[in-house]
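From the pipeline queue, job 12 of 40. The input is one protein chain; the requested action is below.

Action: predict structure.
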Amino acid sequence: MAKIRYSSVVALTGVLVYGAAMYAGDVAYDSFWTSRSTISGVPWYFIGRVFITAIFAAAGLLLALGVGLLTHVRLGKDVWVGLAPALLFLSPPVGQGVNVLLHTDHIWDRSAASTEWQTFD
């Protein structure tokens, strides 16, 4: 009985980690330079939003994996079933962030930033 209760707590933790990661990306984006940039028609708003969301999703993914590894010892494989939604839904934003990094140079420096994407297409 206690094992089921702890597994539910771990699953709830996964949901909270997912929600916090997505919310933190939205909140933090306003301080990133691309939130105010429309340089030469490049879709910096969307590039920056994806990139910031990816950073927080990666942090959430690492946190969820850490919770899973720590509780796996005590609760067994059932932990991964509870964390699966968080791991599943945090992975695509991380992949999109990697895509942004592959197609964008110097994203942290507004004056030197460049990208292969010049339109929304």
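Job complete. The beta strands are 104-105, 114-115.
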